């Protein structure tokens, strides 16, 4: 490599390149020159004595690597080791040796300092990029860990939703023995998930992502994700039906909205919301429905079916919600009074007019009231179940539901199943 370079002719413009290559130090059978009758030549061992020393084949002379590159930067006046080259071998080494003298010269010292600095110097942009790279890597690691933790918290939220359980506890303070389902699950999982445990240990309370607000936000994100899927499927299906019903709970009225559609040859019924309504008039309910469909960008013109109950605010031909929808553009529709509601009404009316049926259910209702009305009587009932070895089928007596008449079937089944036990209980009482 050095054969291609020569300090006598090499350009020093590209400092980076020359610094990376180092001094030119060829090893060869150096030519001899006669000095005062003595035949002398450059000695290879001098390389090890002076780390800056270079040899020029062209000039059979030595140069200084440091001064050659940095001499002009430090105000170098001497040119022997820089331009002409030193080749007086007789005076090269020894106490008064020129090589040693050059080593100690002010000019050389300054050039050497520059060379050393340059060698270990990392340009400022490289230094900054190193810091930036380190910072970026740290932030990426943090981001990765945060994502892992967020996924676990989301999973806990999803799990509790699927279990249909309450998130919070009555007392969520750290001192509480039961902080509620959500916090309990997070802390339980942390025992087996080191990043989550680290997260709980490291961060102060307000950035833990565990507050009720964050829980609600996560539930909303999941709900929106599900709505996006429903929206995509309804759009793909194009035509859909809508089913609505109102319910009152804790002095507030709500309307459930269900969409029914066929996607990939499968019938889907998907609830898109349980919305609070301030008024139960047809117009008010219509407004809420149109707003919810609008949010999903589902056009009214593709609505082909409307299933509501028979109440006038729903079914009314002038002010009912079904007519309001038609007026608003849902013209393809077929309105039908929900079949389940109809069946329920028919059964109710039939039962009211048939005395034997009325008697059966009033008796069953009375049995329930007597047996469930006191813990002592219920305990007797439980013991009789064991005595008669009634273990399978329905054994628990239930309260009647007036709005879901068909649910009375459960009571009927339970009564038939436990009949010997009930008769025994009541005959003993009598
Ligand atoms: Zn020098």
Total E-strand runs:
9
Q: What's the number of structural domains?
A: 4
Q: Radius of gyration, Cα only, in angstroms?
A: 47 Å
Average pLDDT level = 85
Q: Name every ligand kind in the structure.
A: zinc ion
| Biggest sheet: strand arrangement | 7-6-5-8-9
Biggest pleated sheet: 5 strands, mixed
Give the SSE order as H and E letters. HEEHEEHHHHHHHHEEEHEHHEHHHHH
Structural class: alpha/beta
Compute the separation of the termini in Å.
119 Å
Percent in helix:
40-55%
- Seen as an oligomer or otherwise, the chain set is single chain
Structural descriptors:
binds zinc ion; 430 residues; 14% strand; 4 domains; elongated; 5-stranded mixed sheet; single chain; DUF4371; alpha/beta; Nucleotidyltransferase, domain 5; two-stranded antiparallel ribbon; 9 strands; RNaseH-like_sf; Znf_TTF
């Amino acid at each position: 490599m050095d054969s291609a370079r020569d300090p006598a002719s090499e350009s020093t413009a590209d400092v980076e390149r020359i610094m990376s290559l180092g001094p030119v130090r060829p090893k060869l059978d150096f030519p001899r020159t006669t000095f005062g009758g003595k035949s002398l030549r450059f000695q290879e061992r001098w390389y090890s004595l002076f780390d800056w020393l270079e040899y020029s084949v062209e000039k059979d002379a030595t140069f200084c690597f440091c001064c050659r590159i940095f001499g002009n930067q430090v105000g170098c006046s001497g040119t022997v080791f820089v331009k002409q080259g030193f080749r007086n071998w007789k005076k090269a080494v020894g106490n008064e040796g020129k090589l040693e003298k050059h080593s100690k010269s002010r000019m050389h010292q300054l050039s050497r300092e520059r060379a050393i600095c340059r060698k270990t110097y990392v340009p400022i942009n490289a230094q900054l990029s190193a810091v930036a790279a380190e910072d970026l890597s740290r932030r990426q690691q943090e981001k990765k860990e945060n994502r892992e933790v967020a996924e676990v918290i989301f999973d806990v939220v999803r799990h509790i939703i699927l279990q249909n359980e309450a998130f919070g506890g009555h007392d969520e303070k750290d001192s509480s023995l039961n902080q509620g389902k959500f916090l309990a699950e997070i802390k339980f999982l942390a025992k087996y998930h080191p990043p989550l445990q680290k997260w709980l240990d490291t961060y102060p309370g307000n950035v833990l992502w565990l507050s009720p607000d964050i829980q609600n936000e996560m539930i909303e994100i999941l709900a929106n994700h599900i709505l996006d899927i429903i929206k995509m499927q309804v759009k793909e299906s194009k035509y859909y039906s809508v089913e609505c019903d109102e319910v009152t709970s804790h002095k507030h009225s709500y309307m459930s909205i269900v969409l029914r559609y066929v996607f990939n040859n499968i019938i889907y019924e998907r609830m898109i919301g349980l919305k609070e309504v301030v008024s139960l008039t047809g117009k008010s309910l219509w407004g809420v429905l149109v707003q919810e469909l609008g949010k999903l960008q589902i056009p009214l013109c593709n609505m082909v079916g409307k299933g509501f109950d028979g109440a006038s605010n729903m079914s009314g031909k002038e002010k009912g919600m079904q007519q309001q929808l038609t007026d608003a553009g849902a013209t393809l529709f077929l309105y039908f009074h929900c079949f389940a509601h109809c069946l329920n009404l028919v059964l109710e009316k039939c039962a009211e007019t048939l005395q034997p049926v009325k008697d059966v259910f009033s008796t069953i209702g009375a049995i329930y009231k007597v047996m469930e009305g006191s813990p002592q009587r219920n305990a007797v009932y439980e013991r009789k179940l064991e005595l008669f070895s009634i273990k399978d089928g329905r054994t628990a007596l239930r309260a009647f539901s007036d709005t879901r008449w068909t649910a009375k079937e459960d009571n009927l089944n339970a009564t038939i199943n436990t009949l010997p036990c009930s008769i025994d209980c009541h005959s003993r009482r009598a």
